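Feature request, filed as a ticket because there's no other form

It would be nice if the structure record came with a short human-readable summary line next to the tokens. Right now we just get the raw output. Example of a typical job, pasted below so the devs can see what we mean:
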Amino acid sequence: MCARKTFYIFVEASDGAQFCAVRQDQPIPSVIDGVRWKYVSCIDTARDKPYGFDADAAHAAMRQQGVYFYRRELMFRRADFLLEAA
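Raw output as currently delivered:
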């Protein structure tokens, strides 16, 4: 049961913001070849909340595709503001 919450995390070698996750109790898909996708770490979704990782979407993707792809990009929004002279 614990394995259902644990995911192996891989990063795309050419794009450090593109990640994929495979649940520990599932086979690693052939697309994760160790060349294009490199192993990064293992997370436990009960305690770890990596930026960009959605545990519900990951479980749904595992049921449908056997792998969950996600991006970890920081997006900054610039608020509109006026600078006034003092």
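Something like this underneath would help us a lot:
The domain at 2-71 is CATH 3.10.510 (NE1680-like fold).
Helices lie at 55-64.
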